[in-house]
Each structure stands twice: as structure tokens, then as C-alpha cells.
Amino acid sequence: MTAIDPPVKVVGDNPYPPKTAQGQYILVHPTVTNIGNKAQSYWANNQKLIDDQGREFENDTMAGINVNDGGAKVALR
Predict the structure, then answer these.
(1) pLDDT digit string (tens) for 13-68?
(2) Quick check: is 71 in a domain?
(3) CA triplet 15, 66, 3: central angle to 5 degrees?
(4) Structural domain total, the chain
(5) Are 76 and 58 in contact (CB under 8 A)?
């Protein structure tokens, strides 16, 4: 993980319409390294955040599209 941004209510500063969270978005900047010897795919939809109370938060695909500017970010709701 390279960074976790402070919570936000709305994401999107590109040509796509902004995405508003039901609660808040947490933007996570993961570092992904393939340690194998063949190509692999990374899918943000396969990621989830589990907080210290055991609650699970899923990726929001449309919010992720709104925040990705060439760098990998996962928008968790």
C-alpha cells in the first residue's frame, strides 16, 4: 500500500459524471507486484477492505473509473 486518502463523499474530476457515496469513499493506492514467472491480471473488483471491527467493504467499479488517472487506485465503499 502506498497511500490511503482521507474519506470523501464524491469522487470524479474527469469527463465521467461524479460518483456520490452512500456513506464515504476510502481511496486506497495499492502496490501490486507479480512475483511469479508468468503474466497475471489484477482486478480491483477482487479487492476488499476489512476494518478493525471485521466489517468488509467492497470496491466500487464506477468510482474507481472516476479516480484512476493512470495510477492504480481502489475506491472502497
Answers:
(1) 776 788 899 999 988 888 888 999 999 888 888 888 898 999 998 888 888 888 77
(2) yes
(3) 140
(4) 1
(5) yes
